[in-house]
Amino acid sequence: MRLTAKLSPVHGLKSRLLCLTVALSALTLAACTSSSGPSSTTATTRPLGTNTAWVKDSTSALNVFLPDEDSIYWFDGYGTAHGGRTVISGGVPTARYWSFTAYPIPQNSQRQHLHDTQIDQSDGRYRLTIAQKCTGVSGTCMAMGTTNGGIVVMRLYVPDDVSGAGTGGVPLPSIGYVDQSGKEISLDQATGNPTIGQVIAAYRDQHGALPAALTQSYPPPAPVPVPVTSPTPVGGITYGTGPYANPDNIYEHIAYTTTRGNLVVAAKAPTYQTDSNPKANDLARSSDQHPQVRYWSLCTTLKGRHTGDCLRDEQVVIPAKSDTFTVIVSPTCPVAGYANCLLAGPEPLQNSLAYRNLLPSSSFKPIAFTGSYRMTAAYVARNS
Asked: Which of 29, 137, 187, 222 has the fewest Cβ atoms nearer than 10 Å?
């Protein structure tokens, strides 16, 4: 079933006054706080093995790291200053995919990333260490070089409880910090700077509130009886680069605006790894059948690095005996004549349609988004 936690149509958005200013760039990460300032001490001084106060990020909570609608992100701070280490341990979640990415602040090329099959697991559990150097560290370790700390993001795609807790059916992992002697320390001590702890605390204090831009009212879009078809919309390809991107994803982005009409896209769909959810098409494959991608989806992205509406692989209706999907992007859904519809979001916020392929196989990656696998796009008339 398709989830309902998403942006409402333009004329149905409710107006709320919320405080969340997010600046996500290659150099900075900032969030607004209350007049009393962030309360970082509670969140950053819990001892090793007991801190599970991860901050949830999804399309219905915060919506700051461009989450997919059917994925749940959890983030916290990590520190590696002066030989310090960050240790994460927990139960293996039940999900189509899960991973950890450590983003230094300020961001640089020393970002490190591991997904589920790259993390050592034993008896249904795992342990991950983040350090400047992994010499002498047993088990899975991320070597961050000379950076002192930043944000670590845990991503779960289609966890078995995606519409509930979003933890993959296990408790959130513990995260803690030790100095070079193994003594338990706080996040502030592990980073050598209170700023990261303050940023995390500020996000936590939002209690999942969405940015005001996503909840305020906007005027309904005007009809476009004659679509503006020139220039033809063409997608651009990116490979998991950019601020807070997932290195396991490759994307095709098509910039759009519904002032030109409704956008219609089509492409040959890759096969994807199956899970226990209902399927609207027959392209799901088990892991031993070697699907072309672990997961694929289509999402509208909005200005400010926010996600709008999404459809994932198993939700996309594909005609029988066909492997090609067609999706319309419109201010309102459904649209007569189209089995797949994505909400465009308010015109002032519209940015692009993102077609995501997660962990493409070695044989498929060279041809992803080429030939028939690349989206074709055009604008069509909108009467209301």
From this structure: 222
